[in-house]
Amino acid sequence: MLLPSDECMLFFKLHGMLMIFVNQRLKLFPDHLSHEKYSTLPPSLQIKVNNAFADNTDLIRPFVDENPFDFSDDELEIVSSWRHLVRGAFIIYRELKGHTVFLSSDDPTIAYGVLALSDPFEVVIGRPLPVMAQTILLPFKDKIVYDGLLNSRNMLFGAGIRRSFNESFKEAKARYGIVTSLPMSNEPPPPPKPPKAKPASKQPSKEEKSEVLQEIISVIDRFCQEHLNEEYALLCRKLAEKLERKRPSPLLQGRPNVWASGIVRAIGGVNFLHDKSQTPYLKATDIDDYFGVTKNSGSAKATAIRKMLRMYQLDPNWTLPSRLDDNPLVWMLEVNGFMMDVRRAPREVQEIAYGKGLIPYIPADREETPTDRPGVSVKDAPKKPSFDPRQRELPLGPTDSADVD
């Protein structure tokens, strides 16, 4: 969720001018630093000014008293509210309809509902949530925004850590609710309202759902035959069937050709279909044109599918089979709480991961076959399981433990 564009421009104006004032008082950079020059500073230097402000919020009082940039009373009131800023490390946890949830790293955990500025957080961060980042949260009217800079850390969270984030979020919601304004209230959140009874609606029959699914699959198959390949067709078919199995099935809402475009776009996004260096290559708008939908409709449907199923680039669940070997995320597993590339693990660990269906094959077998090793016959080789990339955690118990260097 973005701050409205007019409010976003106002925020950057007020914040930039205040940072110039802070710089003049603390003499961090030359005094003649203008608003335009501040906005072109490298992020590392802007962070230095922003942190200096967070350490010296008492500068807000002289700024308001002197009003060096002739701000209106309403604008000065916004700047005055920034004395209630919150600085720290946050887990950028989840996108909700009205805001993005930032979980504080303090104890007890607080869940803040934060609005992005000119670009969505998924664009600013460039990878799927959750992500740990250092930033400063600021009140803006009745909302919470950030100071425009995210110092994110390139960390992969295993399933166990993600579960702990879920628990922290539930506890924070029960304790304070989602905090959407600063300073936060000390009052406990109001009890949730009982859900309104929905009128009974006619459930679609199995035949109706099957007809819609087959219509979507048939146009996707035809498109893949003409412009892509059988791999894309199978993966798109798998995605359509997964959407049909959801209850209620989203495929029953909207036109089949729009869903077809969104499904191909979603699978293409995971596999870099829109990258000219890839083969096959297609522009997103070419997909929309084929299915007879607008660019906005195709893009919106693909985004809805990605959010619904938490899809992302290089997602092992939706990577083309021929590209699994080159996908690093296929081989990243959490082993006893540590993330590691299982291709560099001992063969014993690879066999355990393979036996649990976490990897598509044993990497060590690319260098040797089971019969290459003394005392090992083909019948002793582990049987090929069904590869299921959804579970990325490999706990090693006493019966299947292995030393990992």
How would you describe the overall organization of this protein?
By secondary structure, the protein is α+β, with helices and mostly antiparallel strands. 41% of the residues lie in helices and 12% in strands. The protein has 14 helices and ten strands. The strands form two sheets. Strands 1, 2, 3, 4, 5, 6 and 7 form a seven-stranded mixed sheet that branches. It has a three-stranded mixed sheet with strand order 9-8-10. β8 and β9 form a beta hairpin. α1 crosses α3 and α9 crosses α10. The radius of gyration is 26 Å and the shape is globular.
Characterize this entry briefly.
It contains 14 helices and 10 strands. By secondary structure, it is α+β, with helices and mostly antiparallel strands. Helix 1 packs across helix 3, helix 9 (230-245) crosses helix 10 and helix 10 (256-270) crosses helix 12 (295-309).
Strand fraction equals 5-15%
Shape estimate = globular
Following the backbone from N to C, one meets helices and strands in this order, namely HHHHHEEEHEEEHEHHHHHHEEHE
Helical segment count: 14
Structural class: alpha+beta
Radius of gyration: 26 Å
Mean pLDDT: 84
The major beta sheet can be summarized as: 7 strands, mixed
Topology of helices and strands:
Blueprint: H1 5-26, H2 35-39, H3 43-55, H4 60-66, H5 73-81, E1 86-95, E2 100-104, E3 111-114, H6 121-125, E4 131-140, E5 143-146, E6 151-153, H7 159-176, E7 178-179, H8 206-227, H9 230-245, H10 256-270, H11 284-291, H12 295-309, H13 328-331, E8 332-335, E9 338-341, H14 347-355, E10 393-394
Parallel strand pairs: 3-7, 8-10
Antiparallel strand pairs: 1-2, 1-4, 2-3, 4-5, 4-6, 8-9
Helix pairs in contact: 1-3, 8-9, 8-10, 9-10, 10-11, 10-12, 11-12
